[in-house]
Amino acid sequence: MTTADLKDTAHALRHHIVHMAADSPGAHVGGSMSVTEILTVLFFDDVLQVDPAEPKKEGRDYLIFSKGHASAALYAALAERGFFPVEELKTYKQMGSRLAGHSLKSIPGVELATGSLGHGLPVGNGIALAGKHDKLPYRTFVIMGDGECQEGSVWEAAMCAAHYKLDNLVAIVDRNGVQEDGPTEKIMALEPFADKWRSFGWEVREVDGHDVEQLSQALHAVPFAAGKPSLLLARTVKGKGVSFAENTNAWHYGRLTGEQRETALTDLGPRGIRL
Amino acid sequence: MTVSMVSDTTASDLKVGSKAWVERYGLSAVETCRLAQLELARGDRRFFSLEADLGDFGGFPFRDEFPDRYIDFGIAEASMIGAAGGLALRGKIPLINTFASFGLMRACEQVRLDLCYHKANAKIFGTFAGLQAGFSGPTHHSIEDVAIARAFPNMTVIAPADAVSAYWATLAAGHHPGPVYIRLAVDVTAQVYDEDCPFTIGKGNTLREGDDLTLVASGLTVVAEALAAADLLAAEGIRARVLDIHTIKPIDRELLAKAARETGLLITVEEHTVFGGLGGAVAEAVAEDEPVPMRILGIPDSYAEYVGPYPEHLRRYGLDAAGIAAAARQALPRKGR
To answer: Is B74 on the interface with A (CB under 8 A)?
Structure first.
């Protein structure tokens, strides 16, 4: 996709997220808005080798969306990519829907039910270990939140991935800097964050997580080093694009009122306009 | 390790998995389980051995024979069990070996979500279940594992009665789809079965017939103790039926209802807290199907206050033959009331 098309797609995903957060009991707005470009580049820039018509097709790349609370963004990306009808997004968190607040395993395109934080990377290791053992070329991508990296299991898994030289594993951290109770550095400091990963044996790259060109360049360049797992630290803005939700934990989760929906849509700008 | 000595099972003139084989080599349940894991791995390349730095409990023959299918995660159970979930997503069958307390409790939520929710075809072998780590103290005792494992949807829970049973249980688990938890111990324990150990997941075994009451037991040592208790009771003219409920989930409701109907009193025996283990499982089934008086023998609501040898722990909690027989005598008058 061209840079303009990727931007348009990210824009479309954000519109979906706004509507899901307004038409449902609530959504994790902040973390969905921050991860939007990451998902866009993975799904629409020919990074992830997947087939929406055959989600379990052998040979596909694996995406583990470990920050499962941002399911609204994931569902928007899966729907736009054709894993299920875009219309179904209207059922987000409605009675009888499969589009739960945290992704269910039965949703096409979802490899692992996530939402309890710190599970994705260990499971990603298992998938990557199997790939190494079987000498298969598929890759495993794991998207984590930054607050999620306070879970000890993440670092157990970080150690393991480096130990077993899993260069078929890519972890992407959505570094939006804000967790449920406030700024990560105030709640439980992560910095020096990139150095932590490096010291665990990962090859790290840092990008502006809202710049689709930077994301594209980095994600097409994996593995960043042979024999090492890759860590992409994507610096993002929590609630990106929605004025009242940016950089605050107040919109970690919430339901948009009618008025807030209008404000958010105005902030984003209308669909179909090249940004 | 003994396992190394007998890992080339074809060299033995004894039937593998038989009582004579177990006794010749002095095998414990965890050792026969490890040998069965080798058998599984020899027959099917999907089997992997997953370790958290406890491979020296019989795991090294697997490492030597299948180094590319032996993965040590170091002292990191959440990492190991999560990866087991990932390997299972790729069609592998992880055989997870660790201490019962660490696998199910340290990494409880990984077991719940990455294995049970996803119906991962993974098997957890929990060593030092119960009080076997007698001198190690309560950090290494595992008296809650059955209650925890049993609460997870999709989980099968097995407690073999001896080393022979552990061998066949492991083979059965390897061919049983979905997550399975098996409790084991490293000490050599009393033999219950000969080479004709019938092992079908979900089907309990009647070890002794009797009409006065039923001793319902599960697990290493205590099934043998229940049989010995039945001997003590028989000397007094009390005919105790003895059931080996090796599969605690799904439990053999039919066999339990029959025992309740025909003997009118059930006494469960387990090396586990009295909450939520075998006793709880039997009570849940019998209360619905064929209510009769019950006694639940196990470890009371406490952690061991002091260390001691395993047999002394069992004696103190009344889980030896004498204690079980005494509880039976005491409970008998409640029958039929």
So the answer is: yes
What lies within 8 Å, CB to CB, of B301 at 6+ separation is: B273, B274, B275
User: Quick check: bond before B311 cis, omega within 30?
Assistant: no
Domains annotated for chain A, with CATH where assigned, are 3-268 (3.40.50.970)
Contact B86 A125 (CB under 8 A): yes
Q: How distant is the alpha carbon of residue B117 from its chain centre?
A: 22
- Residue B199 in contact with residue B246, Cβ under 8 Å? yes
B272 touching A, CB under 8 A? no
> Per DSSP, which regions of A109-229 are E strands?
140-145, 169-175, 178-179, 182-183, 203-208
Which residues of chain B make contact with A131, given a CB cutoff of 8 A? 90
Task: Tell me the C-alpha distance between B115 and B17, whole Å.
Answer: 29
A157 in B contact zone (CB under 8 Å) = yes
Question: Is A139 at the interface with chain B, CB within 8 A?
Answer: no
* Dist CA A245 CA A241 (whole Å): 8
pTM attached to this predicted model: 0.96
What domains are there in chain B, each with its CATH number? 2-183 (3.40.50.970), 205-331 (3.40.50.920)
Kindly list the residues from chain A whose CB atom is less than 8 angstroms away from the CB atom of residue B68. 133
More confident residue, A220 or B57: A220
Given CB atoms, is B114 within the 8 Å cutoff of chain A?
Answer: yes
Strand order in the sheet with A230-235: A62-65, A140-145, A169-175, A230-235, A203-208
Closest in B83, B94, B117 to A122, CB measured = B83
* A80-123 residue pLDDT tens: 999 999 999 999 999 999 999 998 889 999 999 999 999 999 99
Q: Which helix (H) or strand (E) holds B326?
A: helix B321-331
Residues 41-100 of A with CB under 8 A from B: 62
Q: Contact, B276 vs B225, CB < 8 A?
A: no
The two structure tokens encoding residue A126 = 């298992």
Size of chain A, expressed as the number of residues it contains: 275
